[in-house]
Amino acid sequence: MLVLLPPSETKASGGRGRPLDLTTLGHPELNPVRERLLSALTDLAGDVPASLEVLGLSERQKDEVARNAELRTAPTTPALRRYTGVLYEALDVPSFTRATMAKAARRLVVASALFGLVRATDSIPAYRLSGDTVLPGVGSLRTAWKPSLPDALAAVDDLVVDLRSGSYAALATVPGAVSVRVVTEVAPGKRVVVSHFNKAAKGRLAGALAATRREPATVDALAKTINAAGFTVDQAGPRMLEILTDHLGR
């Protein structure tokens, strides 16, 4: 089983790892695109006003541009400790046992605009790049990743649980993946997708799937695994599961 997570716009600062080395990251077939995007992003960082405009940042977020300028020299830290925000707070990596972290290293992968796919233990620097960004000299990230990312995902033999958000799911489809949406029941038989709590629920789900001793290989087995972890789950389609919550995310 492979659980495909969205990244977060916010990243933890610092780190104790050596500067970025693409040869240490998983999926080395993605390195040519990674190198191209790194160069484009660091070059863009040389023009702060242009960076703010392209990245959709405010004047108060100039520090994000400074991060991008130092991508090749900044310290790194494992991906699951680099990404922050609601989903990753709910994932609660600090609570992982050694055994859970070992399973997370095999099962959890982050869909990254800059790196394509990042394993849980891959050491990366802090950066700012969203999935819907159009980079000067590169164009849309969907176009940039098209030659290699879809093939990398299609080559995954395990059952893929796709928890990505829209702009990252648009970078490449995953044949046969199981999608998960978080819903609440507003009236008998009527469900709506939640907003804010969606991220928290998916973070808790990812943590549960990282820790489980089960190895689901089918949608039915996955649903049973999720139920066993304490969630209420229904199959809403051939490859779609719904997690039922009483939170509206407001």
Radius of gyration: 18 Å
Mean of the pLDDT scores? 94
Q: How far is the N terminus from the C terminus? A: 32 Å
Quaternary structure of the protein: single chain
Tally of helical runs: 11
Q: Hey, roughly how much beta strand do the residues contain?
A: 15-25%
Largest sheet: 8 strands, mixed
> Uncertain runs with pLDDT below 50, 5 residues or more?
none
Q: Helix and strand succession?
A: EHHHEHHHEEEEEHHEHEEHHEE
What's the total count of β strands? 12
Give the helix level as a range of percent.
Answer: 25-40%
Inertia-based shape? globular
Q: How many domains? A: 1
Structural class: alpha/beta
Question: Can you walk through the features of this model?
Answer:
By secondary structure, the chain is an alpha/beta fold. The protein has one domain. It has helices at 31-44, 48-55, 62-69, 79-82, 86-91, 98-107, 141-145, 149-154, 166-169, 196-211, 219-228, and strands at 2-5, 77-78, 108-112, 116-119, 123-124, 134-135, 139-140, 160-162, 178-187, 190-193, 232-237, 240-244. Strands 1, 3, 4, 8, 9, 10, 11 and 12 form an 8-stranded mixed sheet that branches. It is globular, with a radius of gyration of 18 Å. The model has no long low-confidence stretch (mean pLDDT 94).
